[in-house]
């Protein structure tokens, strides 16, 4: 049976509609693929840029480290007398100090006494047993230094930090607690040497006050600028008299 013109037209129209739909479907599929590829390429490029930036930054940091001033250490210790306390439970327990993480500065709080007198007091505690007290080093008013306890043993000076610090007691001439110039200079030299010996920084040098809040050493607690100046003097001394890190330290 022969179809009418109207039927033929409708059939053609259906085919055109179907073709348009097919073309639209293909375009959408192509657009999705294009966007996915574009996003992937963008992500990979961004990742590459980040990696390159990080590599350049790491290289710059390494170069800065290489050209920076070498760390210095004071090789020569100041002169000091070694007068070790008798091993006893009140002032020299003989307990091993496994690692030195800091240096604690103290003052004797008994004006006018000498380093030898303070050392004798620590020794007397073995007999009196009146308290637990001692220090690795004592610096006198004239700048003399006495070592009372080996640096690989603990002293009874810094409370919770006894187990990982070296203590330095400083004698004072009067109630102000201010050190004499001789005491101060010996303190700088001793602490600077100990910093190098145990690879410590100025931040590892603290006051007894920083451990317990005790007013010790009095002058450095009451005059924070003097404590800051002391830290600066340590670094200046190390820079002036130190040797480079690559050299051997005795």
UniProtKB/TrEMBL annotation:
Q: Name one GO biological process term.
A: cell wall organization
Task: Region Disordered: list its residue ranges.
Answer: 1-21
Q: What's the domain of life for this entry?
A: Bacteria
Write out the coiled-coil annotation as residue ranges: none
Give every N-acetylmuramoyl-L-alanine amidase domain span. Answer: 90-232
Enzyme Commission numbers on file: 3.5.1.28
Which key words tag this protein in UniProt? Cell wall biogenesis/degradation, Hydrolase, Membrane, Transmembrane, Transmembrane helix
Gene Ontology molecular function terms on file: N-acetylmuramoyl-L-alanine amidase activity
CDD domains associated with the record: PGRP
Pfam families from the UniProt entry:
Amidase_2
> What's the catalysed reaction?
Hydrolyzes the link between N-acetylmuramoyl residues and L-amino acid residues in certain cell-wall glycopeptides
Transmembrane region positions?
32-53
Task: Point to the regions of Basic and acidic residues compositional bias.
Answer: 1-14
Write the protein's name.
Answer: N-acetylmuramoyl-L-alanine amidase
Top-level taxonomy: Bacteria, Bacillati, Bacillota, Clostridia, Lachnospirales
């Amino acid at each position: 049976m022969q179809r009418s013109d109207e039927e033929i037209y409708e059939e053609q129209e259906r085919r055109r509609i179907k073709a348009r739909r097919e073309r639209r479907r293909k375009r959408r599929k192509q657009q999705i693929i294009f966007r996915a590829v574009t996003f992937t390429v963008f992500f990979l490029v961004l990742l590459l840029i980040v990696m390159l930036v990080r590599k350049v930054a790491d290289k710059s940091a390494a170069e800065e480290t290489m050209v920076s001033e070498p760390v210095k250490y004071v090789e020569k210790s100041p002169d000091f007398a070694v007068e070790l306390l008798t091993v006893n439970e009140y002032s020299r327990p003989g307990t091993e100090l496994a690692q030195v993480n800091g240096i604690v500065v103290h003052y004797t709080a008994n004006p006018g006494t000498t380093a030898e007198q303070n050392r004798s007091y620590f020794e007397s505690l073995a007999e009196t047993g009146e308290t637990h007290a001692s220090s690795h080093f004592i610096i006198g008013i004239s700048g003399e230094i006495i070592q009372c306890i080996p640096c690989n043993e603990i002293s009874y000076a810094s409370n919770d930090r006894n187990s990982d610090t070296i203590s330095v007691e400083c004698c004072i001439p009067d109630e102000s607690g201010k050190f004499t110039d001789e005491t101060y200079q010996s303190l700088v030299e001793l602490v600077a040497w100990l910093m190098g010996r145990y690879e410590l920084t100025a931040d590892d040098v603290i006051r007894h006050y920083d451990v317990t809040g005790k007013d010790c050493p009095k002058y450095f607690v009451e005059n924070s600028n003097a404590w800051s100046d002391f830290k600066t003097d340590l670094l200046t001394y190390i820079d002036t008299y130190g040797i480079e890190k690559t050299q051997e330290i005795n």
